[in-house]
Amino acid sequence: MNPHLAKNSKYGKWQSLGLTFMAYVMAYMAAMLTFRQFHHLGDIYGILVADIAATLVIFFLGLLVHNASLYDPYWSVVPVGIAGYWWSLSNFTFEDVRNILLMIVLMYWAIRLTLNWIRGWPGFVHEDWRYEMLRESSGSLYPFVNLGGIHLLPTVLVFLGMVPAYFVLSKNGIALNGLDYIAFGFGMVAVTIEFVADEQMRKFVVDPSNKGKIMNKGLWKYSRHPNYLGEVLFWLSLFLFAFAASETHLWTIIGVVSMLVLFIFGSIPMMDKRSLERRPEFSDYMKKTSGFIMLPPKKL
Prior knowledge:
This protein is mostly helical. It has two domains: 1-93 and 127-157, no CATH class; 173-300, no CATH class. The protein contains ten helices and no strands. It has helices spanning 13-38, 42-64, 74-88, 97-120, 129-138, 142-169, 178-206, 226-245, 254-278, 282-288. It starts with 12 loop residues before the first helix and ends in a 12-residue tail after the last helix. The mean pLDDT is 92.
């Protein structure tokens, strides 16, 4: 066990989940109070400030439990609250089919990702290996890396990805059109890709006969990171909904681009490097298999 987390061994999974729930209630309350103070900034910038305030609460509470993974569920639970507020600005117009379609995709994504985290998280005895790596590599600078890289940067990126939803949920766009159905299809397929990829990997990992082997079956035969592909496609679907509502929302594609940059230049290289260090034969898998887009494997 990581010595840094030894003091958290007294917390079981359900105790850790309970503490996490209370932490997020506190973060929500902080966001509400902050938004009241900064409401004059508008429903985009005001919510962003509130979002950052909630992130700071989770950051400081993570310091108390000595585990930055307290932030992990933030990625999937906060967007639902933001979307709910923005939808309330239009008085929850259920007759607006575009709103309904977007919320179906968002809820499908949020529920899947949150449940996947709950299933795989053993509690505060565990911290994401990437956070541990950053702690070891940054040394005395880790508190700043923790605040900026682990907490604030993802919060801002997710918020940018959510901005298209504001222009759908809070505004009256043009009539429903074919692009809306394309956006809905993209979103549903994207989350399903993530679900299938995670389930395939879970079954592979728990099978003792696969110890030391490389997962190269199912969706993982065509992409080294099909779950990341699904994630980017999900954010693309939110943008497509906004673009379907009005072509003036083209600039909101910055959210999708930011997510793509994060995965292509951040998450994928980190995951591949770790896999190579643990299993040198992973290099052959890298040569044959696309890193992101699902493509037929190459013949070496």
